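REQUEST
  id: r-88c1
  op: predict_structure
  target: Putative phosphatase
  payload:
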Amino acid sequence: MTEYIVALDLDGTVVDYENRLSDYTRAVIRAVARRGHHVVIATGRTVDGALDVANRLGLTHGYVVASNGAVIVELDAESDRGWDVYHVECFDPGPALERMSSVLPEALYMVEDTDLVRWSSGQFPDGDLAVGSDLRVTSFEDLKTKTATRIVMREMTIDNAAFEKSVQNIGLHGVTYSVGWSNWLDIQPDGVSKASAIQRVGVNLGVEQKHTIGAGDGSNDVEMLQWVDTAIVMGQSKEKLGAYADIIAAPVEEDGLAEQLVNFFDLTKDEISAEFR
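RESPONSE
  id: r-88c1
  status: 200
  body:
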């Protein structure tokens, strides 16, 4: 059997925007993994938030890509935590924070450090950040001194059009960034993305690029969708990301990902039913 890497975004792809995982999607993903394929979660969430879904899926081995590619952990049932850090990318957040705050001084800022601790300039609104460890609030000046895997900026005082224009005016250099759905900006080290992390995992597993499939719904999935051999775009994002799709799935609320995985891997009803037991 040819082993595939199956790289899956979480929010809007595996789970809906309320963090709900359908029984059918769970069963299909488990059936894919039981076939011997490598299910790799690839998310903008922090490690804790990503592991929340990995645990609900029942994944006990393999890799989880978090923080949009800056952090990779390997699931290990024998480890005390159930996982070990495999690779971390980091950068100096100071210059980017300075440029962002000069254009959007009212924004909230969060920095995740190399110990995977999240530091912020203030409390984020409830529901903004996925399940994970508590934020540690500190001064903006202190944020600039951290060694970062990721920066998040959240601006709540202007509309989305004004936010996107402001981001263009910031002129970020030496980092990789993606704009989220609701005045949200994610920043990673230069050249780091879900795609770069999946490529690293593929080399370690000995899986060629031609044996990769990925699914996503947001701007932080673009590099991944471009890199994998078969790209699935979720139906609710077809207008924004359709140009990157080999397959356009039904929306997440309709189990669109599961349907396409069943088709791609030709899963049987018995294989899927077995995962409900």
